[in-house]
Each structure stands twice: as C-alpha cells, then as structure tokens.
Design goal:
By secondary structure, the chain is α+β, with helices and mostly antiparallel strands. β4 and β5 form a beta hairpin. It contains 8 helices and 6 strands; from the N terminus they run αααβαααβαβαβββ. The strands form 2 sheets. A 4-stranded antiparallel β-sheet has the order 1-2-6-3. A two-stranded antiparallel sheet has the order 4-5. α3 crosses α7 (about 180-190). It is elongated, with a radius of gyration of 43 Å.
Amino acid sequence: MKLNYRDKIIAGVLLAIVILLIGFFVPVKNMNNKNKADKKILAEKQTIKADYEAKIAKIPSLQESIRSLYSDASDATKIFVPLDEVKSQIKVDSYMQKYADECKIKIKNLELGDSTVTPLNYYYSSNKDGFSALRDQADVNGTLKKEYEASIAESTALSQRAKESVIKTQYAMKITGTKENIWKYLDAMKNFDKAVVINSVTLSDYTFGKDAAKKAGVELPESKDGEEVSVQAGEKEIKNISDAQIVLSLYSVIEMEEPDVEMK
C-alpha cells in the first residue's frame, strides 16, 4: 500500500515521538533502578552508622568501667609483697626484725630461697559425701539433696573457679626465744598486713629447758610474761629458751600497667 504525502508526514511524526519516548523512558527507568539500589545501600550504611554510633556512645561507660576495674585490681595487689622488696634480703629482714624486736626474740639467721610461679589455692572443704546413698533413699521429696547442695554451694563454687598464679618466694629463718615470745612472734606474723604464709615451725627443744633441767636434777624458775630465766646445773646454764626453724612464703605479683583508655 502506497502512503501519500500526508500519511508519510504522520508516520514520521509518530516514529519521532516513539524514538523520543524510548530515549526518555529508558534513562528514567535506569535512573529509577539506580535510585532504588542507592536507597538500599543508604539504608545499609545508615544501619552500620547507627551501630557505630551506639558503640561510640558506650565508650565513656566502658572507659569508666576499665578504670574502676584497674583501681580495684590495684587495691587488691596492695596485700602482696612488692617484687623488688621480696628479693632483697635486707628489706625482708627489716620486716621480720620489726616483729622480733616487739616480741623480744632474736633472729639468728635468714636465708633466701628460690622464687617460683605457683597457683593461688582457695581454702574450702573438700570432704567427700559418704552418705549420699543413704540420703538418696530417704530423700522421697527431693529436699534433702537441695539442702545438702546448698550447704556445700560455696565449696563447690571455689573448687570450680580458675586458679590464678602468683610469685612465691620462700625464706628459712632461725630464731631463738622463750616459748611465750616465740608464740607472740608467730601471732604477729599472722597479723602481718602482707601476703605471708608460715609453712612450718620446728623447735629444737619443745620443753624449753624443762627436760634438760629435770635430767640435771634442778628446777627451772617460772617465767613471767615471757621473760628469760635460767638455772645453773654444774658448769652448764639451762635457759627456758629454744631455737625455732621457720619456713615462710612471701607472695608477690607483677602489677598491671594502667590501661590507656583515652580516645586518640
């Protein structure tokens, strides 16, 4: 079919309109798709931003928590003997001599032992339950088991707690004095405000001269307030004193540096 001039003009105009519409809608569609993709990315970025902002908002409280934990840890370490002092026999001797002077005993010798890393044990009852079978038979309501578990709850928790390690330095010291004064000295050591544990005490004369006086046929005078007394047995002088070999442990830790929590 032949188109006349008028139809050709109309067809050309329609074709031009179609081309223009295609040229318009394709970019618009692409831009719309890109806009949707950008909105999705923006939403994801905003979620990430909100997450970071929430974490940043927590920083001041975390900083304060870290400072508080460090302060508590520093207070807890005050009980331990400073490491630079525990390895100094002169400083340890000054610790011991203070109480020796107060309790009127003499320190004859002080020997430094090795320092080792050792776990810090917890003190708790570790007795085995020998009546569990009988308790189970009588526990018809389940209350006996609950009562027993409640009674050992603290020991159970301590037995399961992880042990921390500390530095242990042992000293062997030899002292001499009357029974009352040696006992006072040991009590003073128990009240020492540092982490010191008396491991063993061995006396050279458990009777503090009484047996020696009895064998010599003499009587040792009574002592008042731990004073030193003596009796002459021939050429030998017998005193109410004894040597004591003491082994003790001093505990130390390496103090943690203060954490740097400031934002750079």
